[in-house]
Amino acid sequence: MKSLRIALCITVCTLWLSGCGGNSNGNAPGEKAQKPRAKTALTADDYAVTVQELYVAYFGRPADPAGLANFEAALQVAGAPNDIQSLVSAYDSNPAVKKLVDAFGVSAESQNLYGGGSSADFVAAVFNNVLGRAPASAGLTYWTEQIGGSLSLGNAALSIMAGALVNTSVQGQIDAQLIQNRITVAQRFTSSVSYFNNTAYYKGPSAAGDARTLLAAVNATTNTQDFNTDADNLAYFLANFVSIATSAATPSYPAGDARLTIFNTLNSYRQLAGVGLLTQDPLLDQSAANHANYVDINNAPGHYETAGKPGYTGNDPYYQSLHVGENPQQFIGQVIAFVQPSIAPNQCLEILSNTVYHLQNLVGGQQTIGSAVNAWTCAINTASQAGAPSTGGFYGTDFNGQEAPDNVFIKSPLPNETVLGQGLAYGESPDPIPDITTPVGHPVMFMIPRGVTLNVSSFTLTDASGHSVASRLLVSSDSVAGSTTSAVKDPAGDMFPSAAFLIPLAPLEDGTYTASFTGGRGDTGLAINATWSFHVGPNWILPGQSAILFRERWQEMPRQWPRPRGGVM
């Protein structure tokens, strides 16, 4: 298993950008610098800052390149002023300006951002979005009364921003600097989206949410030069992700086929976890079957094959997929469980979900799936196409593929899921706890979307009596510095930076358990708190379902690797 650490490459790319057309003020290639705001004959480019102010005021995010160009041209045709105070005044006297501003104010995106509450709620939401703070009592009263009088909702957010920019009080100067800093970062982001030719990917609620998160981290004291890398990275990564799939085409497996069971169960699990559904790829089925055959013929557990041995189709899962005619422009992932013969297919998924490294891959950004089950081996191949170069490879999916919204926190065991009490019972390679040889409990995972670093302040597990369960906290190497001192660095280096795991130091007894997580995003510092409960019993059952997916057959198995048969790779 590997993780493609593209973030390191993007840092290099950012430095390269500044050396290939960037200028001394930190503008990205093609970035429009702010021009004088008052001219007798304004060009479309003179409205660049004005349009960004409209986007930030009403949408809380930078403009997309197409929207920027369209509104620049429209404001020029309307004969609009290009400073925000004059634009607010023109709202009442210039019908064309009013129509353009209202296009922002009454849009679905703005309505979703500011909600449908009272005028006071609206003002509070605008202050929080535009100024990053709650309004003072006097300000809340003033703007609420204005909305109840002569100020329309369509013009309100822009008016509040305009007022902040000319307020000479101490707080007003702080607010004005914050707005200016966010507009500067917004300009950088928009120009970077154009530079990376990712305009088509900057759309939809997920991408908009990421851009809002970027701006929300900017305040009055922010050095906007330091945010160039963040803006460039986000603009680059837009092409690496697609919105989660909420439906999947019916697979071609016949009734009773073990692969159909795996497909349906894994998609049910992913849907409950809040990540996208997978679509069958018959070529991945074929490459998985070829590799499972190679493993059994040669008694060679693992992902890799050796040329010259019977059944050889490629060195790693990527080349094994090319052997059957798969598209080279994708990333291929693979998880394997070695099980007893004639065991129900769901044992494969139970084993894989009862791990560390393999579990995070089951709920990653994959888009397609293929699988194979034979006498001893269960192989699941997955692929992600979004953001893949012309030649892909065998990688994890923490930096590409389907992207869950930022407010989706992936928890395992799932809330109200019933799991088996012993964890890692069949061994996992690599071993996340190589120094522990006694039986342990079912791992507990908390993960946020994408390759964002997750910092952990506290991650605990308690039983139904409120007693703390002794556990080891595992985090990625990226998370160690920002996490509690009790956190242990992942020994294999394969954990996603966005994940954290608790490993109970003894098998869990039957009953109900509560997991509590406190921490934050490493990029923005946004606080994250989550608490959920799950159950331990003799059967594996997904939440809301009564069907037994797998019935436990062994208890208190010693942890050892390698096994003659049995294990996870």
Please name the defining characteristics of this protein.
569 residues, alpha/beta, six-stranded mixed β-sheet, five-stranded mixed β-sheet, 17 helices, 37% helix, 17% strand, elongated, disordered N terminus
In short:
With 569 residues, the chain is an alpha/beta fold. It has helices at residues 6-18, 48-59, 65-77, 84-93, 95-105, 108-114, 119-131, 137-148, 153-166, 170-195, 204-216, 228-237, 258-273, 282-298, 317-323, 346-353, 357-362; strands at 241-243, 279-280, 331-338, 368-373, 377-384, 393-394, 401-403, 410-412, 418-419, 422-423, 440-441, 444-447, 454-462, 471-475, 488-489, 499-504, 511-521, 527-536, 539-540, 550-551, 567-568. The protein has 17 helices and 21 strands.
Strand content: 15-25%
Q: Which stretches are low in confidence, meaning pLDDT under 50 for 5 or more residues running?
A: 1-39, 553-566
From the spread of the alpha carbons, the general shape counts as elongated
Count of helical stretches: 17
For the termini, the CA-CA separation is 8 Å
Average pLDDT taken over every residue: 85
What characterizes the major β-sheet? 6 strands, mixed
Q: Strand pairing plus helix content: what structural class?
A: alpha/beta
Helix content: 25-40%
Radius of gyration: 27 Å
Number of strands: 21
